[in-house]
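Troubleshooting: if your tokenizer reports a length mismatch, compare your output against this known-good record of 86 residues.
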Amino acid sequence: MHQLSKSEVKEKEKPAKLEDVAEETGELIGKGLKKALSVTKSLGKGLVDTLEKTDKREESMPSTCPHCGASVPLHSNFCASCGKKL
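Known-good structure output:
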């Protein structure tokens, strides 16, 4: 194991300059914020894409059964009147 010399010990004991600590901290915070922004943008895009797909699906869903003409709720998979798959 390496023993520290007296000059190395004095250097380690020297208090850090506030400006240096602030600069390093600011850089770390900046990197963290950039990463958070990137993740947020990706999440936002994913949510928008999902909502657009849902809207398109709902627009293409019939409000009446194509088999018997009965009125059906938007999110129905089967007609309550004739029982056929929508």
